[in-house]
Write a structure and sequence with these properties.
It is a single chain. By secondary structure, this protein is of the alpha/beta class. The protein has three domains: 71 residues, Winged helix-like DNA-binding domain superfamily/Winged helix DNA-binding domain (Arc Repressor Mutant, subunit A); 137 residues, 2-Layer Sandwich (Nucleotidyltransferase, domain 5); 153 residues, Nucleotidyltransferase, domain 5, CATH 3.30.420.40. The protein contains 13 helices and 15 strands. Helix 10 crosses helix 11. It starts with 8 loop residues before the first helix and ends with a helix. Belongs to the ROK (NagC/XylR) family. GO terms for molecular function: DNA-binding transcription factor activity; kinase activity. This is Putative NBD/HSP70 family sugar kinase.
């Protein structure tokens, strides 16, 4: 067994850099003295680290702070809105989206382009994605990392997309494929779109720390958050609620099973049952009180509650957050969903499940992907600072 070794100067600096930047981002406007008090580091150490961050574009100085007593007035420190951005990409079944998020968490730019990716090979779709990335890079802002959201099983350890049933993809190394098409010299992270949507809700949404975020598009995905952290399973394959069997006698699914939730409550099935060619047509029919449209959404809500009740009973989650197209259907979906959850959740008599509508809607996954890239920099800024100085 090897003996523990003392931390190197670089390791200590790396740790302290993260402490200082966290203090600045969680308490913007703090002075160097306040950061020193908050982190326990000496004022000299904080000043040295802050100077490096300012030079790298991570931190900016603001106005001088008021001081009642003698001595030099401190200056307010803020994460720089012109510093490294996170570039988020979402590969949807029928679209490709991009998003730029700065260090303050603000969305600076977003795009959405329709694309029927079910009929295209991974190579062809990733070429489109590479074009979208290059177009976003033309905005001439520093990029600190790229996050990619995909609708399938993504292995946490490798970032490999193992399978995406609704795309018909298997064993695709998204990271290497994109690097082969775009000259990316920054970290690239790949994640499941439902998990990234749940993280976006955690960071930018209602503020709840324990919930299941369910997003309904052509496929249905769920991201589970417990005690303010994503729970995605041992290998990262958790949250595939769309492929829970809710009707053993139901229609066959692209995953190889039958009666899966997304085959009964997914967007395509709702449109078909409602007799509406597009989602906008469905919304118009619902607003007009069309009985076919209303019934289609109500039936989808019952199937959705059947699957969600299993997750709530198993994990004792207090809250369901509706995202994606379910967020847009919430006015016609929520009542039936809540009623059925009360019937099926064992603990509902004492603690009814709260149903919320995501404020992020369809942009949650791509925003989560971009923010994940930003938060990676905030959690470990020293590599970015070192690269910026080279």
């Amino acid at each position: 067994m090897s003996r523990p070794q003392p931390a190197s100067q670089h390791t200590v600096r790396r740790h302290n850099s993260a402490l200082v930047l966290d203090a600045i981002t969680t308490h913007p406007g703090s002075s160097r003295a306040a950061v020193s008090a908050r982190t326990g580091l000496t004022k000299a150490t904080v000043s040295s680290l802050v100077d490096r961050m300012i030079a790298a574009g991570l931190v900016v100085e603001g106005e001088a702070q008021a001081r009642s007593g003698p001595g030099r007035r401190g200056t307010a420190l803020h994460p720089s809105p012109d510093g490294p951005h996170g570039l988020g990409v979402e590969i949807g079944v029928d679209y490709v989206a991009t998003c730029l998020v700065d260090l303050t968490g603000r969305v600076r730019h977003r795009t959405l382009r329709a694309s029927d990716n079910r009929t295209s090979s991974p190579a062809r779709v990733l070429t489109k994605v590479a074009t979208a990335i290059r177009n976003t890079l033309k905005r001439d802002v520093p990029i600190g990392g790229v996050g990619v959201a995909v609708p399938g099983l993504v292995e946490t350890a490798t970032g490999t997309l193992r399978v995406a049933p609704n795309l018909g993809w298997e064993e695709v190394d998204i990271r290497d494929e994109l690097r082969a098409r775009v000259a990316l010299e920054v970290p690239v992270q790949v994640g499941n779109e439902a998990n990234l949507a749940a993280l976006a809700e955690l960071w930018h949404g209602h503020g709840t720390q324990d919930f299941v975020h369910v997003s309904g598009e052509i496929g249905i995905g769920a991201g589970i958050v417990v005690a303010g952290a994503l729970f995605d399973g041992v290998r990262g394959f958790g949250g595939e609620i769309g492929h829970l069997q809710v009707d053993p006698n139901g229609p066959p699914c692209t995953c190889g099973s039958r009666g899966c939730l997304e085959r009964l409550a997914g967007q395509d099935e709702i449109l078909k049952s409602a007799g509406c060619p597009t989602f906008d047509d469905l919304l118009k029919a619902l607003r007009a009180g069309d009985p076919s449209a209303t019934t289609a959404v109500s039936e989808a809500a019952k199937w959705l509650a059947t699957a969600l009740s299993g997750a709530v009973n198993l994990l004792d989650l207090p809250t369901v957050v509706l995202g994606g197209t379910y967020a847009r259907l919430a006015p016609w979906l929520t009542t039936t969903l809540e009623t059925t959850l009360r019937e099926r959740v064992l603990g509902a008599r004492w603690s009814p499940t709260t149903v919320l509508t995501s404020t992020l809607g369809a942009e949650a996954a791509v925003r989560g992907a971009a923010t994940t890239a930003v938060r990676a920099i905030l959690a470990d800024p020293d590599p970015y600072i070192t690269a910026a100085q080279s």
